């Protein structure tokens, strides 16, 4: 159960890293990636996955 | 009436603007006393704006600003933005700024301060939202302040997160904030903002704009209460908010905004924005000017804004950003204040002279009776003088001349004529269409060919006032023009 980032769409704005309640998102090289072990899909914390809600690019933070 | 600077505190509660300002800048580094404040302006406010190119029409001819693009994240979506490019609220759309970390930004600022003696302001305007991406914005300002204590800071924001960092802003002595406000009615807002991210949730439709509006008003009120100067930017979108901006102007003025700046929507399908792709057009020069004229009885409007990019460097109207890209910045730099200090002394003198000549220029025109109000385009590099070759100009400053005096009302971007070779005719046609409504061009020099073409298009041209102060040149040209007509009649 985890989200992932579609690298081709990502603008590397960093908003998702900022909002993730579990520090699951970080920059590797020059790409943002989600650590599947840390990602909870925000369950129990927020109504919807924070990365997907804040991401400016459609279909970029999606279920893995 | 002298128009030394294009700003006045808005009429009500003028005393409130930072009446409590604790820190008086030291006389050593600022041009204290020499360039005196215009009578209509509160001395505290003048102290804050006199060296800020974006807030003071006078200062924009002498002082430079630089932006560093340290804040890429944003918390709203605007229909005139796609995130591949910079935030279009403050920057011209369609440009990509060089992003950097706060540490890189500090090195860059110091390098620029050593070389660009006109530097007076460091701004953070994105490329996303400076208040939402606050950790990076704050880190940058704090580190720079340690090295260059007398530099001024400003930032731009959509306002949604402004209230969250207002305490930091106050503590850090940031005394200018720009808010982009395109609407005060959520129905209008819904056509501009598809969504916002607020309180851990994505909001859409009218609800989104309702929240944004409330947060913007709250931000504006907080700035006012703390004596921080608030400038409001609005993007003019024909058919969406053009008429509505009259209402925006009324509301932001009431809430204590210091300046209101209306910028044209720049819309191009190639930018891939929603507005670009759906064929929403931007306003023409004429439409923009008409709206600015209708607004100017209320809030003082800022006619010299250039919609700079988020990594712009230099005087307004120029961008030396390419000289200072990160690969040209040394690993270690030490700040040397000598250049900036001596430049300030020179400016203090020049400004005194400039003010005097403006007043005498206006007097000269006041004796003429019933003469038309006309628009004059001036080619000027900097320093308030007519000192640029026609062929090198990338923009004209547009002045209005009438027996009431000479005043700056805007600027028009043009493609430079001397690009070396072909296509000159086509370039000239574009320049002529950009000069729509302008009766005369004053510049330092101009070739015969462009001169003839302009005159054929009904635009008078003169290089007889080369290197004069702009206002003196225009008033001399204007008077000469009309006494000549008289002679012909007699
Ligand atoms: S879904 Fe939630 S936990 Fe997972 S990466 Fe996105 S923000 Fe973090
Ligand atoms: S919010 Fe979206 S665009 Fe921004 S870094 Fe995260 S995935 Fe990329
Ligand atoms: S965009 Fe406008 S406000 Fe910003 S630096 Fe340029 S002129 Fe000043």
TrEMBL record, chain A:
Residue span, 4Fe-4S ferredoxin-type domain: 1-30
SUPFAM superfamilies, per the entry: 4Fe-4S ferredoxins
Keyword Metal-binding among record annotations: yes
A molecular-function term among this protein's GO annotations: metal ion binding
Domain of life: Bacteria
Keyword Iron-sulfur: yes
Keyword set, alphabetical order: 4Fe-4S, Electron transport, Iron, Iron-sulfur, Metal-binding, Transport
Cofactors named for this entry: [4Fe-4S] cluster
Signal peptide coordinates: none
Name of the molecule in the record: 4Fe-4S binding protein
The species this protein was found in: Zymomonas mobilis
From TrEMBL, chain B:
Source organism of the structure: Zymomonas mobilis
CDD domains in the cross-refs: NifB, Radical_SAM
Disordered as annotated region, ranges: 1-35
Pfam family, one: Radical_SAM
NCBIfam families: nifB
Stated role: Involved in the biosynthesis of the iron-molybdenum cofactor (FeMo-co or M-cluster) found in the dinitrogenase enzyme of the nitrogenase complex in nitrogen-fixing microorganisms. NifB catalyzes the crucial step of radical SAM-dependent carbide insertion that occurs concomitant with the insertion of a 9th sulfur and the rearrangement/coupling of two [4Fe-4S] clusters into a [8Fe-9S-C] cluster, the precursor to the M-cluster.
Alphabetical list of InterPro entries matching this protein: Aldolase_TIM, Di-Nase_FeMo-co_biosynth, DiNase_FeMo-co_biosyn_sf, MoaA_NifB_PqqE_Fe-S-bd_CS, Nase_CF_NifB, NifB_C, rSAM, rSAM_sf
Compositional bias of kind Low complexity: 26-35
Family: Belongs to the radical SAM superfamily. NifB family.
Keywords: 4Fe-4S, Iron, Iron-sulfur, Lyase, Metal-binding, Nitrogen fixation, S-adenosyl-L-methionine
Cofactor (UniProt): [4Fe-4S] cluster
Boundaries of every Radical SAM core domain copy: 60-311
One Gene Ontology molecular-function label: metal ion binding
Pathway participation: Cofactor biosynthesis; Fe-Mo cofactor biosynthesis
Protein name: FeMo cofactor biosynthesis protein NifB
SUPFAM superfamilies attached to this UniProt entry: Nitrogenase accessory factor-like, Radical SAM enzymes
